[in-house]
Design brief:
Structural class of chain B: alpha/beta
Strand order of the largest sheet of chain A: 6-7-9-12-10-8
Helix content of chain A: under 10%
CATH class of chain B: Alpha Beta
Number of strands of chain B: 9
Order of helices and strands of chain A: EEEEEEEEEEEEH
Number of strands of chain A: 12
CATH architecture of chain B: 3-Layer(aba) Sandwich
Number of helices of chain B: 9
Structural class of chain A: mainly beta
Strand order of the largest sheet of chain B: 3-2-4-5-9-8
Distance between the termini of chain A: 10 Å
Shape of chain A: globular
Largest sheet of chain A: 6 strands, parallel, barrel
Radius of gyration of chain B: 18 Å
Shape of chain B: globular
Largest sheet of chain B: 6 strands, mixed
Mean pLDDT of chain A: 77
Distance between the termini of chain B: 18 Å
Radius of gyration of chain A: 14 Å
Mean pLDDT of chain B: 81
Number of domains of chain B: 1
Strand content of chain A: 35-45%
Helix content of chain B: 25-40%
Low-confidence stretches of chain A: 1-5, 128-144, 147-156
Oligomer: heterodimer
């Protein structure tokens, strides 16, 4: 489970290709986003976010209250929810994460704030199934400290 | 050697003979399980710049070495280096920037008071009451859920009226036999630092934006009282007059 090394991933660039999508600052979305397209969020999202192996960037104004699954995840804004990455997670200097992080690689800039557990896994073992086929019951609640530690007591 | 045996800090020579931390570290500690924080030997030295040798860290790791995938809680600012260090050793790591959370909590409380509608009864809580409220939300970890806590020098930055409630909470979160690593300045710290573990015995102090002013210099007796519930302790004092302490539940 912990055989992976916590090496520093390069922060993925902000998706700019025609295959990427953007949620700009000022937009608020309440619901579920699924797909396999790179996504940049600088607005607000509450719900669920499953992007398969696509890249996800939470911009400096981004506020996400959701469990997140994606390939490479860069966080410059704030997230309240569990983060699962197939490739790596990068926490920027202004990022704030409350929840658990499951990833094969993690990079943390000075100034980042993380409240929750970090679990390293082998690359690919956290890869999401195609987002559209994910049953809702597979999502997990936001891991506040109590939930995080409770899972440990259960012999995670 | 089992966990319980490892906590017998009252016999440094036996500890060293059984393959524990280096004899230097063991012999350097003069306060024992029964002595609690007392006069301590010069053990931790700042060899260069902002890097200091930490015998307490070395002993902290050794105390947890028999636990299968021990869970530790780092209450300082999250650090890539520290995270890498513990994950590579198979630890399960949680981080919670306690001082930052406390400051945010106070700001929220102030905002609540400031924005309360005129005429509405708003109660201004005392610091101990605020602390109780904080630990109900900000340190809401189950009892006995962590094996080790990295407290660093955070207690120096909390108002002394707040600290007892925090200590009670930390104690309850700690697994029996678990250990707390704490640092105490013997004079007001000149500036605020974050701590980053470089290796098993080396900690780097990184200057950081002042999150809080140094609030209190804890004397030996006060430290002893704070950790009164703990059954064992060991301290190391460096030339920089920073006291490293290990407390075992």
């Amino acid at each position: 489970m912990t055989s992976a090394t916590a090496s520093t991933p390069e922060p993925p660039a902000v998706p700019t290709s025609t295959g990427s999508s953007r949620i700009h600052a000022g937009l608020k979305i309440n619901g579920e986003i699924t797909g396999n397209s790179d996504l940049y969020i600088d607005g607000e999202l509450q719900g669920k976010l499953r992007l398969g192996n696509a890249k996800l960037v939470i911009g400096p104004h981004g506020k996400v209250q959701a469990d997140i699954e994606a390939g490479a995840i860069t966080i410059e804004g704030s997230i309240q929810g569990n983060v699962k990455a197939g490739e790596g997670v990068h926490l920027g200097a202004g990022s704030r994460v409350q929840g658990s992080i499951l990833t094969p690689r993690i990079g943390i800039d000075d100034g980042a704030r993380l409240r929750g557990k970090v679990e390293m896994v082998k690359a690919g073992s956290t890869a999401s199934t195609p987002a559209t086929s994910a049953p809702a019951s597979r999502t997990t609640p936001v891991e506040t400290p109590r939930a995080v530690a409770a899972s440990v007591k259960g012999g995670e | 050697m089992n966990w319980m045996a490892k906590t017998r800090l009252s016999n440094p020579s036996a500890t060293a003979a059984k393959g524990g931390p280096s004899t230097t570290a063991a012999a350097a500690a003069t306060s024992k399980a029964t002595a609690k924080p007392g006069p301590a030997a010069s053990a931790s030295v700042a060899p260069a710049g902002n890097v200091r040798i930490s015998n307490a860290l070395k002993e902290f790791l050794w105390l947890l070495s028999d636990v299968d995938r021990p869970r530790i809680l780092d209450l300082g600012a999250v650090s890539q280096s520290t995270l890498n260090f513990f994950i590579a050793k198979g630890f399960r790591v949680s981080t919670d920037d306690m001082l930052h959370e406390w400051k945010d909590f106070l700001t929220t409380e102030e905002e609540r008071m400031r924005t309360a509608p005129v005429g509405e009864e708003t109660e201004r809580l005392s610091l101990p009451a605020l602390a109780e409220k904080f630990i109900g939300t900000g340190l809401d970890y189950p009892e006995q859920s962590v094996h080790g806590i990295l407290l660093w020098d955070l207690l120096d930055y909390f108002d002394p009226a707040v600290v007892p409630a925090l200590m009670n909470r930390l104690y309850s979160m700690l697994h029996p036999g678990g250990t707390v690593l704490a640092l105490f300045h013997s004079r007001p710290a000149e500036r605020f630092h974050r701590y980053r573990i470089m290796d098993e015995q080396t900690v780097e102090l990184l200057p950081a934006p002042t999150l809080a002013v140094h609030a209190h210099v804890f004397q030996n007796r006060e430290i002893l009282d704070l950790f009164g519930k703990f059954r064992s302790s060991k301290t190391f004092v460096g030339r920089d007059q920073v006291r490293e302490a290990l407390f075992i539940k």
